[in-house]
Amino acid sequence: MKKLILVKYAPEIFLKGLNKNKFENKLRGNIEKKLKDIDYKIITDQGRWFIESENLEVAIDRVKRVFGIKELVLVTQVEATPEAIYEEALNKVKASNAKTFKVETNRANKKYPKNSMEVSREIGGYVLKGMAGGISVDVRNPECLLKVEIREFGYVWTNKDIIKAVGGLPYGMNGSTMLMLSGGIDSPVAGYLMARRGVELNCVYYHSHPYTSERAKDKVKELAKILAGYTGKVNLNVVPFTEIQMAIIEKCKEDELTIIMRRFMMRVACKLAEKHKVQSVSTGESIGQVASQTMEGLIVSTDCADRPIFRPLVTMDKEDIMDIAREIGTYETSILPYEDCCTIFVPKHPKTKPRLDDMRKSESVLDIDALVDKAIEETEVFVF
Ligand code: ATP
Ligand code: MG
Predict the structure, then answer these.
(1) Whose CA is nearest to atom 7 of ligand 1?
(2) Does the C-beta of 75 come closer than 6 Å to ligand 1?
(3) Where are the alpha helices (DSSP H) in the chain?
(4) Is 283 helix (H, G, I), strand (E, B) or coil?
């Protein structure tokens, strides 16, 4: 008898037809990377994956954060014999302290002599007898749902043994994106959601030394590190942004500062993406959330992009974004009160409906290419 972790991967992976193997291999590689410093073994039994480890708790804690996994289940593996299975079934129901139960059986091993209906019925009888009246069957809403799978071995678990995992698709299966990562609440969530769909993350942070402090930079590094806890290695590009901001302040109209600055952010992100062979750019913008995130604002910043821009939060309410931030562990870091480059040079009355032609004209007094190239040249890369 052995305790193992059953890995249930996202049902979407089953829909990948001929590509299913590629998705499975990627997922398996990602699990292996997460566990490389502990003792473990991945066992397969008729298509199911199980993790065996001396350190089950650590393994669960790490693997539940691997994208592409829907659930982990702490199962007991026994010999595929009625005696062993029924005994373990009774133990599990007893341990659950439930007043009602139901048995569901899945027999994948067609050589096993009884079908699933028979097995469920027999286990039901065995448990009722073993509990001597302390429990009854409830097929609609049982407190304890006992699951039995019969493969090469028998596996037994209850609803209490199921651990929710992050879902999504295996990281690295769906191209790459340059995430504009600020120290705020939104962009780490945006990055998480892209990564969760299998998109590889690179990050860029615009740092306005000395107007934004080292502490603000450290906060962004910390956020990149938290994201890397899900994805594995993440690069963070820290771009010196002060010179660009100063040039805008000096030469452009006050109410256009934010919009023109956002156009520069977009250009730099795309240039960095090109340099590092990254296919797209992502941001934490949500339609209507602040003055620069009106439809017009988004159109005007998108104008500077030479590749797809993804805004995974575009339709989400702030509250929902905050809920995800709490769930993924970025919230506490995001709310640390350090200044941000956008909040330092905020116009009193920012334009909410910028016109593309006007913005192009306003910024034409700047040496755009030189400013962008210099910022890229002076970019520092940190790896997490
Ligand atoms: P966040 O909570 O992600 O900071 P926000 O609600 O504060 O977003 P803005 O400050 O308008 O909104 O920024 C919109 C998006 O632009 C951010 O989600 C992020 O993707 C990007 N961004 C803003 N400031 C920076 C920065 N200093 N470095 C990198 N990206 C930034
Ligand atoms: Mg912000």
Answers:
(1) 184
(2) no
(3) 11-14, 20-35, 56-63, 82-96, 116-131, 186-196, 214-231, 242-251, 257-275, 295-302, 318-328, 331-334, 341-344, 356-363, 368-377
(4) coil
Contact 98, 146 (CB under 8 A): no
Q: Which pLDDT value is given to residue 342?
A: 59
- Which residues, in sequence order, are CB contacts of 1 under 8 Å at separation 6+? 76, 77, 78, 84, 88
Which listed ligand is nearest to 216 at the C-alpha?
A: 1
Nearest CA to ligand 1 atom 17: 284
Q: Please report the atom of ligand 1 found closest to the CA of residue 292.
A: 11
DSSP code, position 307: S
Give residue-wise pLDDT tens across range 245-283.
999 999 999 999 999 999 999 999 999 999 999 999 999
Asked whether 59 and 35 are in contact (CB, 8 A), the reply is yes
Can you give the pLDDT at residue 384? 96
Distance (Å) from CA 249 to ligand 2 centroid = 19
- Please tell me if the CB atom of residue 182 comes closer than 6 angstroms to any atom of ligand 1: yes
Based on DSSP, count helices (H) and strands (E) in the chain, helices before strands: 15, 15
The whole-number pLDDT of residue 341 equals 62
Residue nearest to atom 25 of ligand 1 (CA): 182
Cα 367 to averaged position of ligand 2 atoms, centre (Å): 26
pLDDT digits (tens, 9 = 90+) for 36-88: 999 999 999 998 999 999 999 999 999 999 999 999 999 999 999 999 999 99
Strands 162-167 and 154-158: unpaired
Give the list of residues 6+ apart from residue 240 with CB closer than 8 angstroms, or none.
207, 209, 375, 378, 379
- The closest residue, in CA terms, to atom 26 on ligand 1 is 182
Instruction: Tell me which residues of the chain have a pLDDT lower than 50.
Output: none
Does 292 sit in the ligand 1 pocket, CB within 6 Å? yes
The type of residue at 249 is I
What is the predicted pLDDT for the residue at 289?
A: 86
Token representation of residue 53: 């480890």
320: phi > 0 → left, psi -120 to 50 → alpha, else beta; which? alpha
Ligand 1 atom nearest the C-alpha of 284 is 18
Residue 14: its pLDDT value, please?
A: 83
Cα of 173 vs centre of ligand 1, distance in Å, is 26
